[in-house]
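Morning!

As promised:
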Amino acid sequence: MANELNNVGIGTKLIHAGAEPDPLTGAIMTPIYQTSTFKQASPGVTKGFDYSRAGNPTRQALEASLAAIENGKYGLAFSSGVAATDAVIKLLSPGDEVIAATDMYGGTYRLFAQLFEKFGIHFHYVDMKDPANIQTKVNANTKLIWTETPTNPLINITDIEAVAAIAKKAGALLCVDNTFASPYLQNPLNWGADIVVHSATKYLGGHSDVVLGAVIVNDKDLYERLYFIQKSSGAVPGPQDCFLVLRGIKTLHVRMDRHGENGAKIAHALRNNPKVAVVHWCGFEDHPGYQIAKKQMRNFGGMLSFELKNDSIQEVNRVVTSTKIITLAESLGGVESLINHPASMTHASIPREERIKNGLNDGLIRLSVGIEDAADLIADLTQAIG
Ligand SMILES: *Cc1c(COP(=O)(O)O)cnc(C)c1O
């Protein structure tokens, strides 16, 4: 199915890729195959499935959809975004080195620094706004470059094409965490990345009702190694969760267009608010990554962060607990707007000195702009900031 859809627009792909009507009943939606095992006609003779950790029809439909919408050949679904990241790092061996971005999801940092480091995999962290910084850490052991763009929560932009060229020269793989952009706004494989990772919990699911992760690649050997890890480590999503993400994907383009429109309106409103010191959003023409974002993204998205002029912890706490429509919660990418204090919530696992050094101040507030009416969101923020 993914192959037949190569010459259609992204909206058509999002709705149809991987989702053939059920051959048995004609059901338009992929059924939730809530089964752990499958009848065999004789030992080893199956209809393509033998056990749901190794493969399940609902998951297979989702994996085909994920591959198609990222312009990749192969998709793999995992039980969470961090499980997808975990699978990618398990491609490596003790002694291998990874160059990762300083500014990335806190849980990725925790997995690298507190779990994989003790298995002998070494991580270097560099500011990837300038790809030249990566080169300084390249050596014969460099096997993987890991980046995220736009970054969480500072909305920095990495030039995927430039980093891919460095990775190629170093003989290392490039993995891009594409969660913040989603496959509708950005396709890293098109710019030379080898691996794309998603927390499908966010925009792909889109409704804050499921935790799921994804990996997409083009190379068959890489896919087979990742499939072996998926099957052997077993961090697979259940069929119902796969169904929810399949359903979410069908409206990704419509939602992302509105997230982007609302993001722009709110970013400008915050910038014009006299009590706001700085707004981080990659759609501002004076954002350092604006030209690159324009090159590699379809629109600038609905993720932004800002700092108040009065950034005392009391004032920040007052603002994030004063919104009435926007909810104080971790996560992002759902239809509803969420507000978050990274230093004490999503990024609390990063040591404070590290955080501050990388520009993630105690007063930073992150917004996942939803698809409500922009005027209501602006009014809500304005009254909360006061
Ligand atoms: C949430 C998130 C993850 C982790 O995904 P889970 O589904 O929560 O495990 C990874 N990367 C980014 C950028 C995220 O926002």
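The chain has a mean pLDDT of 95.

Hope this helps with the figure draft.
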